[in-house]
Amino acid sequence: MQDVVSGPGFSQSLERGLAVLSAFRPDRPVVGISELSRELGLTRSTTHRYVATLASLRYLEQDDATRKYRLGPRVLDLGFSMLGSLELREIAAPYLRQLTETTGHTSNLAIRDDTDVILIDRVRGRPGRYHHLEFSLHTGSRLPSYCSATGKALLAFLPRPDLDRLLDHIDLVQRGPRTLTDRNSLLIELEQVRRTSIATNDEELESALRSIAAPIRSRSGQVVAAVNVAIPWSPAAMSELVSRLGPTVRATADKIAAQVI
What we know:
The longest helix is centred in the last third of the chain and has 20 residues, at 238-257. This protein is of the alpha+beta class. Helices cover 43% and strands 18% of the residues. A hairpin with a 5-residue loop joins β7 (209-217) and β8. A 6-stranded antiparallel beta sheet has the order 5-4-3-8-7-6, sandwiched between helices. The chain has 2 domains: 12-71, Winged helix-like DNA-binding domain superfamily/Winged helix DNA-binding domain (Arc Repressor Mutant, subunit A, Orthogonal Bundle), CATH 1.10.10.10; 77-257, Beta-Lactamase (2-Layer Sandwich), CATH 3.30.450.
């Protein structure tokens, strides 16, 4: 562990905890206690104490077969929050405006926070194209991931073990007339999202509200956010709406992704 300059407010425990997290790298995603203790210059028992704390907080998770550790979902949440509050929102803003101008519908940019999605930016559509729910939504609003298009776009690309753990904590309650309340049905739909990179909400969040979303990837391929358009109910079939608006939403996501590090 590198020496750092400390001051009166310096926390050695925090510094050591962050050093443990920093020991995990793309070329070495799984590390054992012995390897960590040697690299950090800590005793095995001290290392185990920090690792156990980080695992209990979901910043690390243990592989059942090897008993080694990898970074957990809470680390991804920190990354999503950073992108949402800083760079990503600024990058996406002009593309959201263009999406709304092109479609006439409200567009949203969202990131995942555990079982919810958070709207980190939105551009209101033309008057007359609102759903009443839109008047209560604002930047910072939370929506359940399992019954929103942006949520499904973010859930679909999680590693299967992470997705299963997340779904274990989601109560699939009926929110709209078409909410998927069966876990297998939701998993089948998420598999389709992985194939098409298009997610939909067909009156699943609330009656008379539909939406179409697409995932936004970083250059590493990690899905870091999602963009959507919210569509008040119309006589058109959902498949027709996807054919008409899906390519535009997906193209918007790709344009934003091209600017994300």
